[in-house]
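Hi W.,

Here's what went into the run:
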Amino acid sequence: MAEKFKLTIVTPDREFFNEEADMVEFNTTEGEIGVYAGHAPLTVIVKPGILAITQGDTVRNAALHAGFVQILPREVTILAEIIEWPGEIDEARANAAKQRAEGRLAERGGSVDVARAEAALMRSIARINAVKMK
Amino acid sequence: MASMRDIKRRKSSVQSTQQITKAMKLVSTVKLQRAKGRAEKSKTYFNCMYETVVSMLSKAGDINHPYLKANNSPKKAVIVITGSRGLAGGYNSNIIKLVRSNEWNKDDLIIYPVGSKGRDTFARLGYEMGEDYSAAIEEPIYADAMKISNQVLDDFATGKVGEIYVVYTGFKNTVTHIPTRLKLLPIKIEDERSDDDKAVLDFEPETEDAIDLIIPKYITSLIYGAMIESVASENAARMQAMDNATNNADEIISSLSLLYNRARQSAITQELTEIIAGAQAIS
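Here's what came out:
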């Protein structure tokens, strides 16, 4: 674990994170992925889930909801549309959103946008997990 | 010569107008600072986004994706970003002029207004109007841009429109703002760009699916950037306009003061003449 890489996380509103890291893990459309330094160049699309940044012995978590990631051997850039530290999450709101989304999925009526409800459910679960892991 | 009372009334009216323009200038200065800060913060995101999309497209050159070629619809979707308020110099009218320029045929356009000034003008001129997003310009957030881009991409996918443009005011610096017309879709692939430093960039999922997912994000970020720049430009334009108005008011006030003093003097002189004449008549 000697080698580190530069991890940059940017959102449209701010630079979320910009430090050296040992490893970063997150969810992609193809499944979970963990990236060390020296990874083959790759661009992946993010799925809502927990983002875990490992720096030495410490692990920092954040809820990452949408965006894509550009992986280069010495550099990883995450273009996140929505990302939050656990401290920024309103747990009560996430719980409410989860219930709402579950209710919508349970109905499965013609007017329910299933894909949207599923995405909302995944987002709320990611938020709740991020808060719990704090 | 106008009477003293008239001049005085006019002067005080100009003075109170000046107070308003001064206050508006201060307000837009503060808003400009904020908007400028936001525009700078979001720069990194857009640069990264742009680089990724360019490298992706230069790699995917031979891919025949719907986002990369025009469909057959002659209609053009135009997202017109203006302010919701006036008193900003030429800010709103420059945008409107650009949309109405001869290059575009009125009947081919569908206007998606962001900002009520543009909406009202184009509705009055009889343009075909799409969804209205005017509320978004007050405080542009990324979610608003997402809504707009989803809408236009839907219309593009269903063949309602064949091309998508955004017309906004680019913010260069506080005194220079450029009304800009930007083509969002179909995306032109710039052949001259070579990304040797990036080596081979793989995509997961496959390139075609990746385009499906990344292009909407790219469009959204462009719309968001356009909104943020427009807000900065609007406030800068208003600041300048109000600064000019305040200076003009100063000028008017000083010339009115001169007139007032002259009128006062002549009134005194006349009164004196009358008194003296009266006194002479009695003695």
